[in-house]
Amino acid sequence: MADEIRNGDSRVRVVRLLGHRDDAAAWEIRDFLKRSVVEFQWIELPTEEDCRREVGLSDLKNVNLPVVELPDGTRLFGPTLRDVADRLGFVAKPKLRQYDVSIYGAGPAGLSAAVYAASEGLSTVLIERSAVGGQAGTTSMIENYMGFPQGINGADLAERARQQAVKFGVEILMMREGVKSTFHDDRIWTDLADGGTMVARANVCATGVEWRHLNLPNEDKLLGRGLYYGAGASEAPLCGGEDVYVVGGGNSAGQAVMHLAKHARSVTMLVRDKALAASMSQYLSERILGAANVQVRYDVEITGLDGENALERIRIGSRTTQEADWAATPRLFVAIGVCPTPIGPPTPPSFAIQAAISSPVPTS
Fold first, then answer.
1. pTM here?
2. For 144-200, what is each residue's pLDDT tens digit?
């Protein structure tokens, strides 16, 4: 079922997601489905009448939102991401007791390692705690990657890599996370967060990066309620008629600006530097400066976030004069760089560099 519901398969109708506009849980599911290349329909339920028409229930306050309606008609009320992934067929159990290679992280690096290992005949398992694709999967457009002269959506690129890995026999275990590893019997034994254990002859840590945060009050409270990290690919279609902001001066921020500009009434880009040239590719900066509904403000940074239940306004401060002003907006996209994902204690060198496998691993 997992491959059947992915985007482009006309045999099965799309997933429907219903909920409140500024519900963080609904955003989390939207983001997961978009990154997993699952075609879905977002239906906002602002009134009792909308709830009665779409869900068949009239008491909106007592409905456990969001609601996910699966292709077979099954409805999940207030599900977790794991619930959704499980019902879509993305969650599987390991087929083997031991593997030649275990890889943690299904971003571009992890997917590449999986393809290379499996294509050489090694039993390979790829463990991912969320959606395949990692940070690259959140990118609205990648234009400087070899082999794609017209550019490619980050999620689509990750999906192609996933299909290639599966073709070579890679097992992909989603919604799982390693929490502790020990080394004995020439194996790496990793305890998983769900209580299982993964055993392999060699291990690759490809846990990637995480978006940098603004580190401002209310940031955690407003995440998914108007504040988003990265390009917000799942949110762009919902920005019609809105004035939105993007903070950041690199290529990721620039691609987010251009993607959002296709949907929003206006996009304002907030840049710490006094020009785009220092941190952005020329082709992208030229597009941004030429876009009719895009404005760039230089030498500024976000100094405050405000909103009761959702983002309502942001405080923009000058880095030179220290003056600041408030700007009303329902959405802020933060793309101010990334930092490595913490992976715990360092891996012993003998296992970190192990590449050759001397003998097959038992498969029973």
1. 0.86
2. 888 999 989 889 999 999 999 999 999 999 999 999 999 999 999 999 998 999 999
pLDDT, tens only, 235-283: 999 999 999 999 999 999 999 999 999 999 999 999 999 999 888 999 9
Give the integer Cα–Cα distance in Å for 344 and 191. 13
| Bridge partner list, 296 | 269
Distance (Å, rounded) from C-alpha 185 to C-alpha 192?
19
Q: How many other CB atoms are found less than 10 A from the CB of residue 318?
A: 15
Q: Residue 307: which of 17, 66, 19, 24 has the closest Cα?
A: 24
**pLDDT, position 8:** 46
Q: Which residue has the higher pLDDT, 143 or 80?
A: 80
Q: What percent of the chain has pLDDT over 70?
A: 90
User: Up-side HSE of residue 193: CA atoms within 13 Å toward CB?
Assistant: 13
Looking up tokens 């993305």, which residue turns up?
90
Homologous superfamily (CATH) for 99-208+341-352: FAD/NAD(P)-binding domain (3.50.50.60)
Nearest to 172 by CA among 112, 114, 113: 114
> Could you confirm whether domain 219-338 is CATH 3.40.50.300?
no
CATH of 15-87, one of 1.10.1040.10, 3.20.20.100, 3.30.830.10, 3.40.30.10: 3.40.30.10
